[in-house]
Amino acid sequence: MQVLFIHQNFPGQYRHLAAAMAARGDQVHAIAGPGARGLPSIPLHRYDPMPAKGVPDCHPWVADLQTKSLRAEAVARLIDQLVQSKQLRPDLVVGHPGWGELLGIKDVLPGVPVLHQVEFVYQLQGGDVGFDPELGTPGWPEQTRLRLRRAPQLLAFHDLDWGLSPTRWQASTVPEPFRERVSVIHEGIDTDAIAPRPGSQIHLKRAGVTFRPGDEVVSFVSRQLEPYRGFHRFMRALPALQARRPRAHVVIVGGDGVSYGTPPPGGGSWRAALLKELEGQLDLSRIHFVGQVPHAVLHDLFRVCACHVYLTVPFVLSWSLMEAMACGAVVIGSATPPLEEVIEAGRTGLLVDYFDSEAMVNTIAAVLDDPEAHRPLGLAARAAMVEHYDLRQRCLPAQLALVDALAAGQTPPPS
Description:
There is one protein chain. This protein has helices spanning 15-23, 63-84, 105-108, 140-157, 168-171, 231-244, 270-277, 295-304, 319-326, 337-342, 357-369, 371-389, 391-407, and strands spanning 2-6, 27-32, 44-46, 92-95, 114-117, 162-165, 182-184, 202-204, 209-211, 217-224, 249-255, 287-291, 307-310, 331-334, 350-352. By secondary structure, the chain is an alpha/beta fold. The protein has 2 domains: 2-188 and 391-407, Glycogen Phosphorylase B (Rossmann fold, 3-Layer(aba) Sandwich), CATH 3.40.50; 202-389, Rossmann fold. β10, α6 (231-244) and β11 form a beta-alpha-beta unit. α1 packs across α13 (391-407), α6 (231-244) runs parallel beside α7 (270-277) and α6 packs across α11.
């Protein structure tokens, strides 16, 4: 079988699936944007979304649609060239419609089944937008702009042969008429490699400290330190936590950019804004901002920490949360829908109200006060990841069965 993966940041969610298909002998090709890393041994065809004459002016409400249309045209032209030169004749296309790259796929590759990665459909109500009043309540202009941002997503559903979503809650954002064509299969967690490991430790060179299991370490991880992942609420809880636990250290992993949402008023990073807001209230010698770290270091942090805090508005669930659980960390999460699906409160982790800072402080302090009593939560979290989200035993076989069925023109098996 020849399969074409389309993802501006390939491999993205397809790192394991694409590699597994290549390893079993399928002809795997990928199309991606200029900055994609790619995978060894998989031919990567890059497209340039910038038109030769520059990006034309447009109404600000449709700027997002224009960006997606530019990507769609660039991808379609590249596919047409590859087909005409006989470098490409796919039996299946697997792609992420979120950036517009698949908008023309049914016209340039008619009759080829397409599997869409259904990560999240923008919600006019009940989702991320407007969840945290501190981040603003959208007025009608913002709502209309959001409505128009949904247009490419909704259009994509009319072209998909099948959809793939990592969690039930993320699949629930799909409009009702299309849900019967969406399988729920997570990308998978390599629970063999991402696992508890005796003797793990974390050394912070700048602070000159080393942490080992048993130390009072609280971890917080987000690709970017921003309000979508509750960074502002976590930071504001630290003065009270430090007062309660004078020996506790907090290790914060993440960059200073913005992946979701907007920068703070006045610009700059949310980290700088929160440190300025809390100036004089924090013992910064016990708060360690380490930026973005290699995966192996991140896993050691999960193995060492007494508890891991993960907060999020109703949005896409981070891999880091599930990797922390696979490492046996005691997770304290926000009681928001993405976490309520994965964590059974009181058995595989602890959930607190996203808006209740006092409850967060009390819960973290309780874990630090008696880590042995809470250790079963980490063990149960690890067991849940192995049982339901293991890469090789559950998720990857299900993904392969799905793509094989689609390529053969069959209705995919139940997820």
